[in-house]
Specification:
The complex is a heterodimer of chains A (about 210) and B (about 250). Chain A is mainly α and about 210 residues long. Chain A is about 80% helix and about 0% strand. In chain A, helix 2 crosses helix 5, helix 5 runs antiparallel to helix 7 and helix 7 crosses helix 9. The N and C termini of chain A lie far apart (about 55 Å). Chain B folds into 2 domains: about 110 residues, Roll (Ubiquitin-like (UB roll)); about 120 residues, Fumarate Reductase Iron-sulfur Protein, Chain B, domain 2. In chain B, a hairpin with an 8-residue loop joins strand 1 and strand 2. Classes of the chains: A mainly alpha (about 210), B alpha+beta (about 250). Chains A and B meet through helix 1, helix 2, helix 5 and helix 9 of A and strand 4, helix 6, helix 7 and helix 8 of B. The site of protoporphyrin IX containing FE has 26 residues of chain A, from helix 2, helix 5, helix 7 and helix 9. FE2/S2 (inorganic) cluster (FES) binds next to loops of chain B.
Chain lengths: ~210, ~250
């Protein structure tokens, strides 16, 4: 059966990573849009949350879909990592990287696992809290310096993951042509930076600023 | 002509089953005009005179076109010079007093044969799976009978420059053979002659590659950086889309 052959193949798994990765990036955009209401006022954010949760079917569909996509991305990522480790069983005595600037690519599995840890903590703190007073939950959360720092570190790690991930995804989709190199280069900096600034500003908003 | 004194740390392994160790040798008055392999020849003469087993290493053309030579020199496949095979690397790139660590290409698939020689027949099996065009033999066709635009021809030629040395696999932290396989799939998918078997080729070459046990590309770009022929990972992107199209639309 061709779909099974495809999914089992090395390149098929790359496609799974790329498609789920793209879905996760779309999710981040929508999440970022929702959170952006916080920059206006906490009450707007509260009404956004109330609006969202007045459609339980949509919320449930999206959160289940997101969970599935996330799970597939993680399981395939771990599978690839384990397979790749097996393919190079013996280390070199002298180990040198020929290509510079590959920190993000080298650490995909670790940055990914850190994001997973973050996602678990974040979901526990927010989703299972009381939605009626989500704005309150968020503001008490970010009054903790340690928790705020954890969030910021997680956003840096996320930016690192996406900076390599986006480029890698385009390569998997076959988009690598001298004509597009300049724009791909810009996107792989702009998108992670966008998320880093937007998400990262929120803890600061509550720590030092007007957020209340 | 200047001369240098160097010391070598070379992986010695009796056969595929033996466990290997690094042995240290010192060489005096090596001409900087020598190629790396000529330097190893000098070492082997010295070892033979001492009644010891010479270091086994692969080589053939010694002019950078056959793909037989190759070892990891100081941590980099084919040594420190970009776009240079080991046979074309010259001793002038080393200094007197240098210690040079020489290791065989390592991968799950490239099993050791002896010392620096490894079995790269996995590559042959990938090519046998579809890295060719089937044509009926007959009279020599006219070279310009099938027109190919020059930009396309250039891209195909860039991919065809692969000499199959295996440095891509050796340098890849995942032991992936995607640069090698991608180069061949890209080359033939670009040319009119490759169209008939285009989809079948992508499917069976990727299956053969996976079947050998090579790893999966994670875009570390080590392969294209060490490739003695400067093959770009654009060819991997092309393979990714070729394989996708072949899987879904054939
Ligand atoms: C919102 C969170 C995440 C986003 C936006 C995201 C996005 C991406 C993208 C776009 C890719 C590139 C796909 C490709 O190589 O073609 C990728 C790769 C990867 N992701 Fe994620 N990811 C996220 C979370 C995670 C998590 C939680 C893990 C946990 C293990 C993970 C593990 C990986 C690994 C290992 C790769 C590399 C796969 C490879 O190169 O073969 N990611 N990610
Ligand atoms: S011996 Fe032929 S390429 Fe080096």
């Amino acid at each position: 059966m061709w779909p099974i052959i495809f999914l089992k193949s090395s390149i098929g798994k790359k496609w799974v990573m790329a498609c789920t990765g793209l879905c996760l990036i779309f999710f981040l955009f929508s999440h970022a849009a929702g959170n952006a209401t916080l920059f206006y006022s906490t009450s707007l954010f509260q009404s956004y949350a109330d609006q969202l949760h007045s459609h339980p079917l949509i919320v449930s569909l999206f959160s289940k879909g997101l969970f599935a996509v996330f799970a597939i991305h993680i399981i395939t990522g771990i599978l690839l990592f384990l397979q790749n480790r097996k393919a190079r069983p013996q280390k070199y005595k002298v180990h040198k990287r020929a290509f510079k600037n590959s920190i993000a690519s080298r650490t995909m599995i670790y940055s990914g696992l850190f994001i997973l840890l973050f996602a678990v903590i974040h979901t526990a703190a927010v989703s299972f809290g009381d939605h009626g007073v989500i704005a309150h939950t968020v503001s008490t959360m970010f009054s903790s310096f340690v928790l705020s720092m954890f969030y910021i570190v997680a956003f840096v790690v996320l930016a690192l993951h996406i900076s390599h991930g986006l480029w890698s995804m385009l390569q998997t989709f076959g988009v690598n042509h001298p004509r597009y190199t300049w724009i791909i280069h810009k996107i792989t900096y702009a998108v992670p930076l966008f998320f880093l600034l937007l998400f990262g500003a929120i803890p600061f908003l509550f720590l030092f600023g007007s957020g209340n | 002509m200047s001369e240098i004194d160097i010391s070598l740390e070379i992986w010695r392994q009796k056969d595929s089953l033996a466990s290997g160790v690094f042995e240290t040798y010192s060489l005096q008055r090596i001409s900087t005009d020598m190629s790396f392999l000529e330097m190893l020849d000098v070492l082997n003469e010295q070892l033979t005179r001492e009644g010891k087993d010479p270091v086994a290493f692969d080589h053939d053309c010694r002019e950078g076109i056959c793909g037989m030579c190759g070892a990891v020199v100081n941590g980099i496949a084919h040594g420190p010079e970009p776009e240079t095979t080991l046979c074309q690397l010259h001793m002038r790139h080393f200094k007197s007093g240098d210690t040079i660590v020489i290791e065989p290409f390592r991968s799950r698939v490239f099993l050791p044969i002896k010392d620096l020689m490894v079995d790269r027949s996995g590559f042959d099996r990938i090519i046998q799976a579809g890295g060719y065009v089937s044509v009926n033999t007959g009279g020599t066709p006219d070279a310009n009978a099938i027109p190919v635009p020059s930009t396309t021809a250039e891209l195909a030629m860039d991919a065809a420059a692969c000499i199959g040395c295996g440095a891509c696999v050796a340098s890849c932290p995942n032991g992936a053979a995607m640069l090698f396989t991608g180069a061949k799939i890209a080359q033939l998918s670009l040319l009119p002659q490759g169209q008939q078997e285009r989809k079948e080729r992508a499917l069976s070459m990727v299956a053969a590659m996976d079947n050998e046990g090579f790893g999966n590309c994670t875009n570390e770009r080590e392969c294209e950086t060490v490739c003695p022929k400067g093959i770009s990972i654009r060819n991997i992107a092309r393979m990714n889309s070729e394989y996708f199209k072949a899987s879904f639309f054939s």
